[in-house]
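Input chain follows. Return structure tokens only.
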Amino acid sequence: HFAHFNGSVAEARAEANYFLRNSASLPKGSIMVLDDESYFSGSQSANTQAAIAFMQVVKNAGYVPYFYTSSSMGRNQVNIYTIENAFPNSYWVAAYPNGNGASWSADFDYFPSNPGVAMWQFTDNWKGMGVDASILTLPIDLTLA
């Protein structure tokens, strides 16, 4: 779900419920990802609490919530440590060692130093094809539901 809630807990909960209504065909226990990367107008604390509220609604509905954002937004727009504390090992981070240049594989010398990175999107230009590529860095934890 691409977030639009701008640091509002009430709007985050409403968006989570919308997401759930439109994903009703997914079996319980499925991973559902909050893509929170461009609509940050609140404080870091407000943005963090809104993301946690969204994820909690998803979890309460029986799904596994994951949080996706860029490494820089995870440092500046939300407190990824607080999100990680609430939902351990649920962070899917976008961090590109080559900028927008073509990448064929993940460069672990560049690995982002954020906590709880379960998935790493290491490029948006895999093999020069202009598509994203990610790798798992931790086993998927379906017990987060």
